[in-house]
Amino acid sequence: MFPTNKPCLPLALALKNMDYEMITINLTKDGGQQFSEEFQALNPMKQVPALKIDGITIGQSLAIIEYLEETRPTPRLLPQDPKKRAHVRMISHLLASGIQPLQNLSVLKQVGQENQLTWAQQAISSGFNALEQILQSTAGKYCVGDEVSMADLCLAPQVANADRFKVDLTPYPTISRINKSLLALEAFQVSHPCRQPDTPPELRA
Question: Which fold has domain 7-74?
Fold first, then answer.
């Protein structure tokens, strides 16, 4: 069982050629399906995603990807070189912890409807300013060197969010170049946020 609204997890599963059953969790329907007793039993934080695998349930995207990497290491999403591996984790956490939570639904509700767009744009731009600078020293074809890594799985969905919130990507040529390279890969095409089963009609590609 794989409840998720975050496409970095379908990306990881697609790249590792894993079969799975997805159960979508609508974050707005009925006050938010993540607050149901059934889902809280899976993830007490009442957040997506949660993955049931190998007899355990794991929450938090990066923890899930790390588990998949440790138990199903081919193809690898973390480099063998420890310095590159640290860079991948740094970029992944910058995106998943430093940007994404600031523009997710629960935070946007708190800032009010009239402030949501400006708030999200500022949060994403601030994070992208830092990321663009970091990528100058880590990037090859992708975020860290020339192999797809966990960092790229976090980048592509956040660029999609930036598009959704109408963030000007002109100041971020490295981010844009990497994202373009990623979107040329089949796994990133089929796992794009606009192609998920629960994508609202107005956001579908």
Answer: Glutaredoxin (3.40.30)
